[in-house]
Amino acid sequence: MSKEQNWKPVIDKFNSKLANWKARSISYGGRLTLVKSVLSSLPLYYFSLFRAPLSVIKNLESIRRNFFWVGTGECSKLSWVKWDEGLLPYEDGGLNIGSLSGKNLALLGKWFWRAKIEPKTLWVLIKSVMIEKMDIKFASSFSKIIGDGSDTRFWEDPWVCGLLVREVFLKNRLTPIKVAIFIWRALKRRIPVRIELDKRGIDLDSVRCPLCDDDVETIEHTLIFCRHAMDIWVRVYKWWGLGTVSNLSIDEIFRGKCNRSLSPLWSSIWQAIEWTCGYLIWKNRNQKVFSDSSWSGPTGLMEIQLKSFEWISNRLKNRKLDWLGWISKPWSCLV
Ligand SMILES: [Zn+2]
After folding, report:
1. For the chain, how many structural domains are there in total?
2. From the CA of 135, how far away is ligand 1's center (Å)?
3. Of 108, 135, 169, at which residue does a domain stop?
4. C-alpha 51 – ligand 1 centre gap (Å)
5. pTM for the structure as a whole
6. Where are the beta strands (DSSP E) in 211-316?
7. Burial of 43 (0-12, 13-18, 19+ CB in 10 A)
8. Whether residue 248 is found in the same domain as residue 284
């Protein structure tokens, strides 16, 4: 299996799976789920037995990348974030997609691990020979002292190259994935605002904000400083009885480090509000650009209240939100 041609069935399977999906009609959130689950699990059998050559890994990663960013290759959208960054865990600013080569190592490493704790079984004797042939320095890759294995959780400990093997989900569970992906892109400064398009050599009539025309359209301008965006933030802060808008950077707002001492539940509700707000401000901006319509301040607030209510109440476990309370006294509307 060290030759590239032996991996052709895996690559063909990857491609044929993709042909059945109309990626362009699937949202980023849907594509992320597909890339993570189906595309990642397709080569599982091979990956658990053989070390894939680098060229094969690169080929498979490019198929995943194109599917996620481009769809099925029908158009050539710009990839707004480097694929390698998307592979990183959330803690490191990625989308937690997980690299295929990491997965390959983890699956092979499992044999190594089991060989350590069950040294006398027959399969271990056979497998050990294979592992040695693979020439992978597993021992040096372990970042945890495994001992007898009883204190190591395979899927949860960062034991291969410091990577988490377990798939964890985006941190705020109260918003849809598409919102989390948008926020992630905003934090990475990878939103197609005009100044960014201009930097990438796309010819535009103007780089000024399509809503206010007061300033160059940067990500900060669109999501915070534009008077249309600020009007919405002020209304949202007022709705929550929070006074003036104090967080004045993308990082402060969306990373959710708030000063108030909130319970974990309220922190994630408030973060969900901020994410919803950012997401809908961007949606409103696009509506202006693509269909020349945009909301007024009161309509914007109402849309944020409706969407956040729908998203959060659908995702809260064992608790309910009361709509009238939600729009009037949100801090006391949990029942
Ligand atoms: Zn503006």
Report:
1. 2
2. 57
3. 169
4. 52
5. 0.62
6. none
7. buried
8. yes
